[in-house]
Specification:
382 residues; alpha+beta; 2-enoyl-CoA Hydratase, Chain A, domain 1; 3 domains; 5-stranded mixed sheet; 5-stranded antiparallel sheet; 9 helices; globular
């Protein structure tokens, strides 16, 4: 993005912000359009109960290319859901200091296909519970660990550096760290800066084709995601806390050990409604190894090095690498690229990962994962 383009967008966003109400407790979406650009303004607190269908409708009907925020944050899981929708619709994100984008909002910002922000416009801190009643210290620690793992996967998926979390965790929930331009570039929070000579795209990338389209590769059985009906618990923490509702800070129904079989009764956003150990509750999709997924291998960990929105990009990356790699279709419709070598021992896997990072054989943000959301290998043979 050139400086001229950045400041043109900045002026347009500032003008639009002058005509909207201050951020309310309710997440809402408005548009501002000129002859050259349409912008979606997301304002208000991000709650887990928010219905994002309004955002989908606006994204599809307005022809918008850019999203900006005026939000103090809120629920991390809903923010990640919004970020994935932004990416799915091929939208960019841009943030000015005139608007607020702090806490969980930073996760939504990362969804942009390209991202630009003024220094001090993005704030981060550690996560906290909005409701601590009825939750033990052990349950709180377990839930925070699970959330941290899910955020690391998401941040990597969006092309940013998961070590951003290390910085965020240094600041309590009642404090805030606003990122400098250098930090945003270092952690890949932004992909373009106001001083960059790169040119920002004038139009958004095309959204992913519908899975029922007969004109795309997604129609082949290779890219179809089976309906999950059963599975087993598989989590790095050796157990999960089954939730009463699909909320990360919801009361715990029962603690369920790794290996426990579950019946999957339905899905709400990124949560499965399951029956396990005689009780019914909610488990995050990344906690369950689904029997119907061909990639499901109990106890096997993979080193994920990259993720791509489109299959052809994942395939090209695998084929161009001198390191043996494989690409997997995931439940989000994205494609995860991993080392072909699989590991069962966590300590050995971490040692292998560190060794490969030190030799620059894999990106610094590569991570060790069970890959519970991997459906099947789609590239490129053994």
């Amino acid at each position: 993005m050139t400086s001229r383009e950045f400041w043109y967008l900045a002026a347009m966003i500032a003008a639009a912000n002058a005509f909207i109400e201050p951020a309310s407790a309710q997440l809402q979406f408005q548009t501002s359009a000129s002859d050259e650009m349409t912008i979606i303004i997301a304002s208000g607190e991000i709650e887990f109960t928010d219905d994002l269908s309004a955002f989908e409708r606006i994204a599809q009907s307005s022809g918008a290319q850019v999203v900006t925020f005026d939000s103090i944050g809120g629920n991390p899981y809903k923010a990640m859901e919004l970020g994935r929708l932004i990416r799915r619709h091929g939208l960019a994100t841009i943030q000015l200091r005139a608007g607020e984008c702090a806490s969980a909002c930073a996760l939504a910002f990362l969804g942009g296909t390209w991202r630009a922000a003024m220094p001090g416009a993005i704030g981060v801190h550690k996560s906290s519970f909005s409701n601590t009643s009825g939750i033990t210290t052990n349950d709180a620690v377990s839930s925070i660990q699970a959330l941290t793992a899910d955020m690391m996967i998401y941040i990597s998926e969006m092309g940013a550096d998961p070590s951003l979390l290390k910085l965020a965790l240094q600041y309590d929930s009642d404090d805030m760290r606003y990122l400098s331009r250098r930090e945003m570039e270092e952690y890949r929070v932004t992909t373009l800066s106001a001083d960059s000579s790169a040119t920002a795209p004038r139009a958004a990338a095309a959204p992913l084709p519908p899975r029922n389209s007969t004109a795309t590769e997604a129609t082949t059985s290779k890219f179809k995601i089976p309906n999950p009906t059963s599975g087993r618990v598989q989590h790095p923490g050796e157990h999960i806390d089954l939730k009463q509702t699909p909320l990360d800070d919801a009361p715990v129904v029962r603690r369920i050990a790794n290996g426990t079989q579950v019946a999957i009764l339905g899905r709400t956003d990124d949560w499965y409604r399951v029956r396990a150990a005689g009780v019914v509750g909610y488990a995050h999709t990344s906690w369950i190894l689904v029997d119907q997924f061909e990639a499901a291998i109990p106890g096997v960990r993979r080193i994920q090095v990259k993720s791509f929105r489109r299959f052809e990009n994942a395939k090209a990356f695998v084929e161009a690498s001198s390191t043996p790699l494989a690409a997997y279709l995931t439940t989000s419709g994205w494609f995860a690229v991993t080392l072909r070598e699989q590991v069962q021992d966590r300590a050995q896997g971490l040692k292998l990962l560190q060794r490969m990072k030190s030799r620059n054989l894999v990106p610094k943000d590569s991570l060790l994962t069970f890959g519970n959301t991997y459906v099947r290998e789609v590239c490129c043979g053994s």
